[in-house]
Structure formats: C-alpha cells, structure tokens
C-alpha cells in the first residue's frame, strides 16, 4: 500500500468514526430542541390566553363603567348633538336598533335623536356619553351579553 492510500483510508475511517460519535449527540440535541420547542409553544399559548383574559377584564371594567353612565360633571361639560350621536354610532359600527339596544331605548328614539326632532333625557345622555369610551369590540361584547341575558330570561 502506498502512503496516499493509507492516508485516504485513515481519513475515511476517521470521518466514519466521527460521524458515528456525533450521531447520538445530534439525535439528543434534536430531541432536546423539539422538547424545548413544545414547551415554548405551551408558554406562548398560555401567555396569549392571559393577554386575552386581561383584555376581557379591561373591557368588563369599561363596560361596567358605561353601564353606570357618565359622571354628572362630564355630562354637564360634554356636547351632544344629533351629528355626534351619528358619529358615535358610525365609530362603533352599530345600527340604530343596536344602539337603541345598547342604551335600552326604542330604535325610534335613536332615530329622533339623530334627526334632531328630540333630545335624550339626562340619564340617556349620561349613557351616550359613557358609550364614547367604548370601542367596537366592547360594543359587540355588550350587545352579545345583552342578547345572552335575553335568551337566558326566556
């Protein structure tokens, strides 16, 4: 055998033995990686659930505040015109009947307020001003809650 062939044979054998030694280590590393990835996924899912709960609780607090109506000081300072009621309804993306449901009045009352033919009573005025603090999601949640109460009352 020549020196070149011996050298090539040694290189081949060393590579083979190195691969043989590395294979179990790589397999263990891959298993560890998969296990850690699963843990990370679980932690991220748990974090997302916590954030959702926090958002719901924040919405619940806002909704409770709106249900009480606005404070007398803010009602006295706030402007409320037919155009502002229309803008509020557009911002919340609700129809007149849905806004009426949120406020606990008839759809005709909302139509009269928006046309300027009538003005909301002071307690309704407080609720309308309180609705300004809500977002679309909050309004949908409040409507869903009211619909659920109606279903359960039947």
Gap between N and C termini: 97 Å
Backbone CA Rg? 33 Å
Q: How many E-type strands?
A: 0
Mean pLDDT: 86
Which blocks of ≥5 consecutive residues have pLDDT under 50?
Answer: none
Order of helices and strands: HHHHHHH
Structure characterization notes:
This protein is mainly α. The protein has 7 helices and no strands. The chain has a domain at 69-153: 434 Repressor (Amino-terminal Domain) (Orthogonal Bundle). Helix 1 packs across helix 7 (136-153) and helix 4 crosses helix 5.
In short:
This protein is an all-alpha fold. It is built from seven helices and no strands.
Annotation keywords:
154 residues, 434 Repressor (Amino-terminal Domain), 7 helices
Set down the secondary structure blueprint.
Elements lengths: L2 H66 L3 H6 L4 H11 L3 H8 L3 H9 L6 H10 L4 H18 L1
Helix pairs in contact: 1-6, 1-7, 4-5
């Amino acid at each position: 055998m020549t020196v070149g062939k011996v050298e090539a044979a040694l290189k081949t054998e060393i590579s083979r033995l190195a691969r043989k030694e590395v294979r179990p280590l790589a397999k263990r590393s891959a298993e560890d990686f998969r296990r850690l990835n699963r843990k990370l996924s679980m932690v991220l899912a748990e974090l997302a659930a916590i954030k959702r709960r926090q958002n719901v609780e924040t919405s619940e607090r806002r909704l409770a505040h709106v249900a009480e109506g606005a404070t007398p000081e803010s009602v006295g300072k706030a402007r409320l015109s037919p155009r502002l009621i229309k803008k509020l309804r557009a911002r919340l993306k609700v129809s007149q009947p849905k806004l009426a449901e949120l406020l606990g009045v008839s759809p005709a009352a909302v139509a009269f307020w928006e046309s300027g033919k009538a003005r909301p009573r002071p307690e309704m005025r407080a609720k309308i001003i309180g609705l300004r603090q809500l977002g679309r999601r909050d309004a949908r949640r409040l409507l869903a809650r009211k619909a659920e109460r109606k279903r359960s009352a039947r």
